[in-house]
From TrEMBL:
Organism: Pelodiscus sinensis (Chinese softshell turtle)
Keyword entries, A-Z: Membrane, Transmembrane, Transmembrane helix
Pfam families per UniProt: STAS, Sulfate_transp
Domain of life: Eukaryota
Protein name: Solute carrier family 26 member 5
Length: 737
């Protein structure tokens, strides 16, 4: 790009600017700064220091492990108690039907859903740091547990075949044995997932949730919604089919339901559809008038009470063969140890459940913490979930996590602290010990309707496709892969596939970064992309190259190629063109001399032979010598044409501001690039290196005596230095370096 000012005027302005603002390179800064002396601490001393305990440290650890000790003594009763009571009751009336319904997803009898809605919720009050989330049963986790239970205890193991008849006493005994085994599997998975969460929390591994990005989680939960909806179709229609798990389970379930569609129980279907209409109407009323209603209408518990009364009054179970919840034992079960022999078979599933459960919890907890102005400890949340699941498993619970719908209700109805969750668990306890038997006539199709309606929010996530299409194609790819893999491969392998793909996208982004040539905004020291802004100008003879990625083995070659392409200076091409032009020029000179020699010999035939030959012999060596000299000397117009990029660009500045690290391969490639450009008279400078990057380069023996002079603190420092060199030393490009 041309510049309007004369070189002398540029030199004067640059020197005047440098007087006001010194140019800082790495060598100058190292001469002025002195590193602090740090005495390395021995390992034994570090261990002794970490094991040292004081009253203040012990109190801090105790408050961290039991957050209730910190906030309960300061609990403002007058300001918070009423809101917590209203919120606890509202959440409790949702816990009851959802606990019963999600037990079907977990492939265990409904009463175990009530157990899972009491013990973990009560324990979270003591160990959790979030004031607004509602811990308990959740569709995605329940479905994942149900998949494991069905896989480890299939119907075939207990001689249960697909049939719509349950009158046989032996068949009922087989059902009881199957349910008992599935409870053992669910409890074993819960114990192991709790231990994993507790271990990760104690080891401060709360950061693992970052690998489950928002597009991945949303795609995964949308796929889980498809699994859940498909699994509930048989309860809605009153059809008895085998429950499938693993890869292609959605297709197998659909085929099984469609093949038995003629056996649909009309009474179950009518009751289920009626409940769906009532629940959707209630949700619509709550959404539309949420500002006017003091609390959301508890439509789920209303539907459960009405359906239970209708079922008991009309005797739907006997008259219309509608499947009901059945026996609900009164009181709590005595604690028993989980069957640890099942742990090796369910380890991978427990790991996936632990990570997904924690991801759901921490994401909702952070949303409410940001909204209400308090902090969340991710490691403590892992510990809290681990204790809830591992301790709850001894009381026959299955794995729990945060429920999005209940958390929104708990927060919107005025809940201020974990007291609201405690009150909701007490409501569930009252049902278990006193009135649980009243829900025995409840039709299972009602529970299926509750589950299906609660999937409404997850199905709305299909709208993410258009959102990510407009904002980020890579995030759209993550969403689609998470959804498709989880639908067809199952939730466990689908999650692993989605995480692996998300990691691959990170590698892809570092291998395909944005490469830019920067220019200066006039009268500032700010540099932007020259292709993006019209006001940005480049300095003559200077190119500023930037890549928004680190330099390492996966992208070092791509970095070098992009540098040559963006700057328009390819040292290899320039050297090759130079050699080619020199050879061609030498060949032309040789042909010219040979032609001249023949012409001279021919002319001497008409003159005195002795004199002319003598003169000719004296001149031939001179002509040959000059030919060789010319071959290696000044190049013709063709050579100058090939050398034009080299003469236009004298300095290239590499902006390392976005670079986070450099490995050995990247350092070697950078050294090689600097050497290549020096051979064609182009000087390379590095600007904006962070301290860790400089340390990486130093450790990799990148710097030589002259190399550190090319390292500048900022891009503007490098530009000023290059301007001084270009303007004050205009002889040759090679002199600049």
């Amino acid at each position: 790009m041309e510049h309007d000012q004369e070189p002398e005027e540029c030199l004067v302005q640059t020197q005047m600017y440098c007087v006001k603002r010194p140019v800082y390179n790495q060598e100058l800064l190292q001469g002025q700064l002195h590193k602090k002396e740090k005495t390395p601490q021995p390992l034994s001393q570090k261990i002794a220091h970490s094991c040292r305990c004081s009253s203040k440290k012990a109190k801090s650890h105790l408050y961290s492990f039991l957050p209730i000790l910190k906030w309960l003594p300061r609990y403002p009763v007058k300001a918070y108690l009423l809101g917590d009571i209203v919120s606890g009751i509202s959440t409790g009336v949702m816990q009851l039907p959802q606990g019963l319904a999600y037990a079907l997803l977990a492939a265990v009898p409904p009463v175990f859903g009530l157990y899972s809605s009491f013990y973990p919720v009560f324990l979270y009050t003591f160990f959790g740091t979030s004031r607004h989330i509602s811990i308990g049963t959740f569709a995605v986790i329940s479905l994942m547990i149900g998949g494991v239970a069905v896989r480890e205890a299939p119907d075939e193991m207990f001689n249960i075949m697909e049939s719509n008849s349950t009158n046989s006493t032996d068949l009922l005994e087989n059902y009881k044995a199957r349910d008992s085994m599935r409870v053992k599997v669910a409890v074993a998975v819960t114990l192991l997932s709790g231990i994993i969460q507790l271990s990760l929390g104690l080891l401060r591994f709360g950061f693992v949730a970052i690998y489950l990005t928002e597009p991945l989680v949303r795609g995964f939960t949308t796929a889980a919604a498809v699994h859940v909806f498909t699994s509930q179709l048989k309860y809605l229609l009153g059809i008895k089919t085998k429950r499938y798990s693993g890869a292609l389970s959605v297709l197998y379930s659909l085929i099984a339901v469609l093949s038995n569609i003629t056996k649909t129980n009309i009474a179950s279907l009518v009751v289920g559809l009626t409940c769906i209409v009532l629940l959707l109407s209630g949700k619509e009323i709550n959404d539309r008038f949420k500002k006017k209603l003091p609390a959301p209408i508890p439509m789920e518990i209303i539907v459960v009470i009405i359906a239970t009364g209708v079922s008991a009054g009309m005797n739907l179970s006997s008259t219309y063969e509608v499947d009901v919840v059945g026996h609900i034992p009164t009181g709590l079960l005595a604690p028993t140890g989980p069957d640890i022999t099942l742990i090796p078979a369910v380890f991978i599933d427990a790991l996936a459940i632990a990570i997904v459960g924690f991801s759901m919890t921490i994401s909702m907890a952070k949303i409410f913490a940001l909204k209400h102005g308090y902090t969340i400890d991710g490691n403590q949340e892992l510990i809290a979930l681990g204790i809830c699941n591992s301790a709850g498993s001894f009381f026959q619970t299955f794995a729990v996590t945060c429920s999005m719908s209940r958390s929104l209700v708990q927060e919107s109805t005025g809940g201020k602290t974990q007291i609201a969750g405690t009150l909701s668990s007490i409501m569930v306890l009252l049902v278990i010990v006193a009135i649980g038997y009243l829900f025995e006539p409840l039709p299972q199709t009602v529970l299926a309707a509750i589950v299906m309606v609660n999937l409404k929010g997850m199905f709305k996530q299909f709208g993410d496709i258009t959102h990510f299409w407009k904002t980020s194609k890579i995030e759209l790819a993550i969403w689609v892969v998470a959804f498709v893999a989880s639908v067809f491969l199952g939730l466990d392998y689908g999650l692993l596939t989605a995480v692996a793909f998300a990691v691959i996208t990170v590698i892809y982004r570092t291998q395909r970064p944005q490469y830019r040539i920067l220019g200066q905004i006039p009268n500032t020291d700010i540099y932007c992309d020259v292709e993006e802004y019209e006001e940005v100008k480049e300095y003559p003879g200077i190119k500023i190259f930037q890549a928004n990625a680190s330099l390492y083995f996966a992208n070092s070659e791509l970095y070098a190629n992009a540098l040559k392409k963006k700057t328009g200076v390819d040292p290899c091409a320039i050297l090759a063109a130079k050699k080619k032009a020199q050879k061609r020029h030498a060949k032309e000179l040789k042909q010219t001399n040979e032609h001249r020699k023949k012409t001279v010999l021919k002319l001497t035939n008409d003159m005195e032979t002795s004199v002319k030959h003598e003169v000719l012999n004296d001149e031939l060596p001179l002509n040959g010598k000059s030919a060789d000299a010319n071959a290696q000397g000044t190049s013709p117009d063709e050579l100058e044409h090939f050398m034009e990029p080299m003469t236009n660009v004298h300095c290239i500045i590499l902006d390392f501001t976005p670079v986070n690290f450099v490995d050995s391969v990247g350092a070697k490639k950078l050294k090689s690039v600097i050497k290549e450009y020096e051979e064609v008279g182009v000087c390379l400078c590095i600007a904006g290196c962070s301290g860790p990057v400089v340390d990486d380069l130093t450790r990799l023996n990148f710097f030589e005596k002259s190399t550190r002079n090319l390292l500048f603190h900022t891009v503007h420092d490098a530009v000023l230095s290059c301007q001084l060199k270009i303007v004050s030393v205009p002889q040759t490009a090679s002199d600049i370096c």
